[in-house]
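Supplementary Note 3. Input sequence used for the single-chain structure prediction.
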Amino acid sequence: MQTGQPLTVTNRDSGIDLGGLATDPAGAFNSDVVAGSMLTYTTGGLRDNLQSYINKAAWGLAPRNRYGNSGRGMFRGPGQLDLDFSMFKDFKVRERLTTQFRTEFFNIMNHPNFGNPNTNLDSVAFGQITSTSVNARLIQFALKILF
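The predicted structure, written as discrete structure tokens, is reproduced below.
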């Protein structure tokens, strides 16, 4: 289990005439945030908010000649929950030879873990969650010989 990652909303023109980022001269800076607005939608479940995880009305484009007024990591993405399980059974063949049968279940509860929303204010997909961060349930069997 873990909480979501801190996220920052950016836009392409924010601070563009001020020198850019140290790692990317054309990098995007923070956007403007509307005071008193809810940054994300908290009503309903996460599945209900996949198309609008971020409140679009709470964010505005920062102009080219200044940085946006929003802070870094002002809200968090969706949390993660994953449960793995494994079983092992050893079969003694001879004194120095053992065969081990293994069964491993990854994401055994088949719980969907959604990825982070798009945080680029210039994108048409801004605020939407379009991916998952882990696979659906996986089961694998293995046979191991120990000698």
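The two ends are 37 Å apart (CA to CA). The mean pLDDT is 86.
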